[in-house]
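User: Hi! I have a protein structure encoded as tokens and I'd like to know what sequence might fold into it. I'm fairly new to this, so please keep things simple.
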């Protein structure tokens, strides 16, 4: 552009206050994503090519989605299709950056104005960033925080607070104003989850600690005034407990946690399954209640008068079926034709709401069927009997001999003839590669293009699933979030150990000791492979899920991801390839189906609750509960 910045700004100001371009902005109504099509239309309709270019550039800024937890790359493209994608902030040329700098302060929509200044700051030289960062924060402060608009504003404020904190002294005054605005919004209403979301954002960024007790007491009051809404009440009780802990008030913290436990028990009492017996949904609430209760030290439980409550809940869990993981068999899908798998998998998740798209994604395949894999393996051995007679030597990817498997008639592996198990694992490994390449990856691209989820979304899923232990929610959610961003390597490092802990947690809830005492008197946790060799594993998790965990995570014959991750043996190709994608999808399915069942399909989940054998159930009922 040959005009000066002032001339460009003046021409843009005229364009957005008159003519057809005046309708491109609706301040406070549409967020940046919603503005994109309006700005594209304004660019097409503008008679002046330079004004058209300005609207086109602002539309590209509006098209990006914010990743507030990613400091290095906070804005991503709206869509990625094979080798093509929409704009990201690094795509702007020097000339385009100059144009945006000329008009950024005139953008009527405060959220888009804030984003534009933030993008300019990211692209500027370090010495030039401070004024742009301050303008970014000023734009956020121009927009009043509202309950109605918080869905759009939350990510922008999350990003803005991080910028303010990292900017140090130069942004200290803005940070104080932002904290004041959040406090006022927190105190403005008691409806919905809005006050809790504001409080969570403040605590995330370390704001309001000097008033932590006041915030905690208000959250506690809201929870007590809405006892009939179990989900909301326990969310506010949990939030109050976290703020009391921040305030150093342990007594109040544990009281709020106990109230959270009581809401879960009360809801469990109202969720009987078939025949009036406790069902899967009730078991879910009971397990969550037990996990929350165990965050209170035993001595504090005694002081609160609930010293025997953990034992009572444990007995009820056993009566209800012990582990909510049995729900995994509630949804399944038929076999996928690999010749058209990519198209079919994309279509299954396309144009659905985010909750339905995730359900379709995790339902692209059921867990591997133990009986089917066994039957097919037996057929193969019958057709080629010689290969099962002799043992095999198995090498790692770097050439080390890591296992010598026996031939037919050798020591059973998880109760299966070693030759047969070897054939089953070979088929299972092929299944992972075909499923990941033909179905999961195309569907993953489709769903991540349409829906941009943040860490907070996975925190909700994990917290409400009932599968994830309460003290592991953040780690599990972060692993799922990394995988959703395409970083399967980081996802595996977090998820594999947490899957092992989840297995241990559910076996313990079913009354199975998960540790052993050495002759020296040391109590050590049993490893995953040994845990999965326990006799009652199939009764707790079901035959198919037990096989899947054993095949994917345990033993050198398969992917053996638990060992590979734990000992740093996994290489880039494995972590970023089919095994990495499948491991993340497996963890997502493990967590998401109970979450969906709890919210949408309680009757179906209860009606399909797997029953334990009578002798196993009786044996569990006679044992004393394990704290």
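Assistant: Happy to help. Inverse folding works backwards from shape to sequence: for each of the 627 positions I chose a residue that suits the local structure. Here it is:
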């Amino acid at each position: 552009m040959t005009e000066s910045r002032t001339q460009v700004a003046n021409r843009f100001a005229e364009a957005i206050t008159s003519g057809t371009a005046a309708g491109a902005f609706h301040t406070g109504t549409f967020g940046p994503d919603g503005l994109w099509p309006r700005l594209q239309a304004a660019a097409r309709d503008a008679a002046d090519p330079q004004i058209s270019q300005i609207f086109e550039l602002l539309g590209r800024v509006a098209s990006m989605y914010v990743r507030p937890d990613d400091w290095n790359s906070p804005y991503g493209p709206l869509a990625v299709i094979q080798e093509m994608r929409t704009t990201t902030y690094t795509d702007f040329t020097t000339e385009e950056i100059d144009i945006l700098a000329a008009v950024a302060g005139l953008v009527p929509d405060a959220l888009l104005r804030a984003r534009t200044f933030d993008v300019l700051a990211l692209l500027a030289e370090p010495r030039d960033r401070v004024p742009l960062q301050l303008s970014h924060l000023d734009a956020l402060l121009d927009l009043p925080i509202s309950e109605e608009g918080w869905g759009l504003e939350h990510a922008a404020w999350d990003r803005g607070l991080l910028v303010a904190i990292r900017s140090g002294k130069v942004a200290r005054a803005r940070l104080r104003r932002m904290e004041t605005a959040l406090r006022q919004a927190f105190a403005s209403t008691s409806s919905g989850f809005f006050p809790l979301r504001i409080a969570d954002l403040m605590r995330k960024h370390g704001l309001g600690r000097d008033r932590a007790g006041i915030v905690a007491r208000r959250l506690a009051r809201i929870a007590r005034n809405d006892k009939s809404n179990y989900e909301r009440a326990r969310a506010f009780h949990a939030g109050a407990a976290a703020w009391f802990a921040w305030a150093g008030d342990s007594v109040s913290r544990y009281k709020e946690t106990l109230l959270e436990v009581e809401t879960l028990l009360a809801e469990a009492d109202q969720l009987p399954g078939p025949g009036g017996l406790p069902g899967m949904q009730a078991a879910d609430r009971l397990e969550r209640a037990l996990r929350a209760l165990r965050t209170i030290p035993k001595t504090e439980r005694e002081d609160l008068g609930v010293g025997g409550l953990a034992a009572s809940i444990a007995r009820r869990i056993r009566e209800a079926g012990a582990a909510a993981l049995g729900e995994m068999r509630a949804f399944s899908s038929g076999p996928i034709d690999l010749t058209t798998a990519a198209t079919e998998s994309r279509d299954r998740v396309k144009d659905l709401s985010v909750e339905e798209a995730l359900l379709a994604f995790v339902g692209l395949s059921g867990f591997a069927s133990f009986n089917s894999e066994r039957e097919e393996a037996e057929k193969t051995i019958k057709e080629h009997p010689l290969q099962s007679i002799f043992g095999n030597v198995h090498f790692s990817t770097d050439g080390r001999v890591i296992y010598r498997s026996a031939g037919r008639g050798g020591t059973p592996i998880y109760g299966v003839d070693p030759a047969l198990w070897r054939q089953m694992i070979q088929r299972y490994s092929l299944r992972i590669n075909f499923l990941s390449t033909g179905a999961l990856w195309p569907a993953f691209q489709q769903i991540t293009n349409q829906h941009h989820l943040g860490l907070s979304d996975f925190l909700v899923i994990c917290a409400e699933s009932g599968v994830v232990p309460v003290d592991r929610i953040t780690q599990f959610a972060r692993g799922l979030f990394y995988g959703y961003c395409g970083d399967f390597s980081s996802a595996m490092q977090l998820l594999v150990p947490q899957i092992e802990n989840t297995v241990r947690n559910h076996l313990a809830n079913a009354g199975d000791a998960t540790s052993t005492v050495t002759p020296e008197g040391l109590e050590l946790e049993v490893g995953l492979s040994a845990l999965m060799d326990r006799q009652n594993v199939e009764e707790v998790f079901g035959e198919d899920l037990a096989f899947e965990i054993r095949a994917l995570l345990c033993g050198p014959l398969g992917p053996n991801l638990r060992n590979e991750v734990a000992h740093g043996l996994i290489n880039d190709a494995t972590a970023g390839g089919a095994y990495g994608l499948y491991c993340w999808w497996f963890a997502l399915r493990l967590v998401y189906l109970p979450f969906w069942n709890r919210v949408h399909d309680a009757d179906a989940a209860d009606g399909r609750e797997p029953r334990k054998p009578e002798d196993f159930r009786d044996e569990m009922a006679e044992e004393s509960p394990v704290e």
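A useful reference point when you look it over: The mean pLDDT is 81. Feel free to ask if any position seems puzzling.
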